[in-house]
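In the previous chapter we treated chains in isolation. Here, by contrast, the input contains two separate entities that must be folded as one system, with a combined length of 591 residues.
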Amino acid sequence: MESNSAPTGQRHKERGSQQPHRTTVRWLMLPSVLFLLVWMIVPLVMTLYYSFQNYNLMMPMDRSFAGIMNYSLMFTDPTFWDSLINTLVLVFSCLILTLVLGLAFALLYNRVFPLRGVARTLAVAPFFVMPVVAGLIWKNMLMHPVYGLFSWMLRSVGLEPIDWFGNYPMISVIIMITWIWTPFALLVLLTGLQSLPEDQLEAVRLDGANRWQEFRHIVLPHLGQVIYVVLMLESIFFLTSFAEIYTTTSGGPGTATTNLPYYIYLNAFFQYDIGFSSASAIAAVILANIFAIFLIRFVAGNLKAGARS
Amino acid sequence: MSQSTKPSASRITLGGTLLTLLAYLVAIVMFFPLLWMILTAFKTEQQAMSIVPQFIFTPTWQSFHDAIFQGSAYTHYAWNSLITAVGSTFLGLLLTIPAAYAMAFYPSKRTDFTLVWMVSTKFIPAVGVLIPIFLVFRSSGLLDTRFGLLMLYTSMNMPIMIWMIYSYFKEVPKEIIEAADIDGAGTLQTMLRVILPLALPGLTSTALLVTILAWNESFWSIMITNHNAATLATYIASFRSAEGLYWAKLSAGSVLASAPIIVLGWCAQRQMVRGLTFGAVK
């Protein structure tokens, strides 16, 4: 974990020697700490509190302690399990696709060729588009069963047009999210490739390694940390996908594309069930934490390595 | 399949040419949906929704004109996006610069813990805090206000800002701050006069990155705004119910909303990588 890191200031040692600033330092920290407490931690604790309450906005007067009822209801709700499975399918499919495509594209764009900058710039553009714009463009102008461009393409080679979001909703959502996030993997992996020490490559080439061995034994190990970071970060974002689903399938047809965030949204804003949706929100937080714990350890490792060197 | 930065580019081979063509193809395929959006924006509504797509047509600015001036108050949404994105960036800088400064230059035993804690709040999913925030906003009249959205964007971006600014401060040689201390400059003076100018490029790229993230943010804007504080994301999301209608207008609105950010994003690619990977890759 230490090897990759120490990106921040190797020249520095601990600066704890100067003590007169202790109070000043506290005052400098206070606004940020308070802000994060008020806007993140307090609401999180409130969600936890609501999850043990009988609380429906339709009957706001009937509030009472519910024990673990919201959780037991949630675990017996088949839609909850559907949404959990959908979330995991979405996360893992998009992770694999963006990583494989991102790596392939990064290798392509790491070569020197005319107009490389222009090509790379065009290829990363989808990452800077709002999720709602991406959703509506894919749903309407590309994947629409009648007027979409894909339908026209299929018709012009004599095939039946496909109702993408109707018949293959999850695959369509995965394709769209992959389109948005492959540029991110490409950008990060390309940056990683460019930091590959040239002398290592020279050395294995002198040893007569072929391109595959070179990739397998030098490039891939070097990219290990970078790939890890891409996977962890993307999983956090994929777990919370909402706007892409909101603008395309609205979680449907049925529950085919209802992921955990969308499930919570439906229970909170259409069933007005604060207690129940809070319990699901806690489930989403726990799921995110399972992924995040690795990332937080990584960030912490980064930090310690930075301080040591 | 050469992976190095400086391969023997002068040697033109068949394989190399094919790979170059493949790289162009990838660029075209990835950019195509956006190109199609741009083309559609210059069509009439009839041309935009035709069974046989129109590749050759007389471009018209009509949809842009409609998107901006016709009823929907496009400028109102654009203004909201601008206020919340730029406002939350400024508030975030105001809050995080002092904290990052304290942690980078006067670390204590708890600094590591505090920093990791601040960064880790980024990993609380927004749905985890959605319900209480919605209820509190509702009872305190903050729903559909720019102030409420601005605060949410600030808290959303603070972990990234703290981390980035901290890492930029760490790159300032410590001799400089020691010299300032010996000269008897106060903490505030050292920060404003000595460190901030040195870290200005880093601060600028941090600001650029979080402005982009706030501008594109779609979850909170859909959840807590309706009209008064609605951003471009909310406005464009409202087209989702208009099945098969107004595609040209939707495209024109989307082009206007995306173009400035895509241009900024292209300029900020490196900082984006550095910021979003928490310094692991740069």
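The first strand of chain A starts at residue 53 and ends at 56. The radius of gyration of chain A is 24 Å. Compare these points with the single-chain example from earlier in the chapter.
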